[in-house]
Amino acid sequence: MSWRDFWNGEHAIYVSDRHKHLHYRRIAQDIAAAVPGRDAAVLDHGCGEALSADLVAAACGRLILCEAAPTVRDRLRARFATLSNLSVVSPEEVAALPDASLDVVVANSLIQYLSTDEFNQCLALWRDKLKPGGELILADVIPPDLSALTDAGELLGFAWRGGFLVAAIGGLVRTAFSDYRKLRAQYGLSTYSAVAVTALLEAAGFAAVTRRPNFGHNPHRMAFWARRPAASVSAQS
Ligand SMILES: C[S@@+](CC[C@H](N)C(=O)[O-])C[C@H]1O[C@@H](n2cnc3c(N)ncnc32)[C@H](O)[C@@H]1O
Fold first, then answer.
1. Which residue's C-alpha comes closest to atom 18 of ligand 1?
2. Rounded to an integer, what distance in angstroms lies between the CA atom of residue 2 and that of residue 8?
3. Is 31 in the pocket of ligand 1 (CB under 6 A)?
4. How far is the CA of 24 from the centre of ligand 1 (A)?
5. Nearest to 236 by CA among 127, 136, 129
């Protein structure tokens, strides 16, 4: 099994339906707050189940949800079939979008599942698809020194506030014996320091890199905003 198979299959990464709904609502609120205007074209790359993507679609002109797992794409298409400004695409279809057509690209909780080569390929793709001056937001980036215990503590705090504490305790125990833990041990998660992310963004042609509060419930993970410069050229990769 690979990370791709993991996300395409049934998994218990969310400890309960309530956890999943509260998680996706919070992420959608954070993305919607980052939309620069009602006519903005927004790409959510690695969107997962994006249960509250309608909130983002309501805040922008066009929302493109990109997801690698075919089963997840099918569920997204069924859920949002009536939203005319929302489309669901594969990573290959993102590559086929017109260059300089997006105002914002968001990748929340994605780059830890990519190798550095794959991350660099995504950076080049996002740079080309963003309009000059467009914004890339990388969120939920895991720093190398973040312990699993700190992550667990943040989940328990989110669960306490969200009313799913018992499920969260059970979920943490299950995770300890799960495919996720085995895959994490086998394939690892990519972690980056703030300096390393900034260097990769700048090497890919992004500018004005700033660190901002993270999206979602875990303030120990990091978020970075960066712009495609107005005069950037697309031949750097
Ligand atoms: C941890 S989930 C994050 C989902 C959502 N962004 C969130 O914050 O809850 C990672 C998602 O990224 C998807 N994914 C992994 N690699 C991808 C790639 N190269 N392109 C698009 N999606 C990818 C996985 O299938 C999975 O659904």
1. 68
2. 10
3. no
4. 13
5. 127
- Both tokens of residue 225? 């905003």
Q: Residue 91: CB within 6 Å of ligand 1?
A: yes
Q: What is the pLDDT of residues 69-110, one digit of tens each?
A: 999 999 999 999 999 999 999 999 999 999 999 999 999 999
Class of domain 3-227: alpha beta
Nearby residues of 116 by Cβ (< 8 Å), 6 or more positions away: 190, 200
Cβ 27 under 6 angstroms from ligand 1? yes
Q: What is the C-alpha to C-alpha distance for residues 27 and 139, in angstroms, rounded to an integer?
A: 10
Q: What is the distance in A from the centroid of ligand 1 to the CA of 76? A: 13
Nearest CA to ligand 1 atom 20: 68
**CB neighbours of residue 182 within 10 Å:** 12
The string of pLDDT tens digits covering residues 130-188 is 999 999 999 999 999 999 899 999 999 999 999 999 999 999 988 888 888 888 887 78
Looking at ligand 1, which residue's alpha carbon is closest to its atom 2? 48
Q: Are 63 and 90 in contact (CB under 8 A)?
A: no
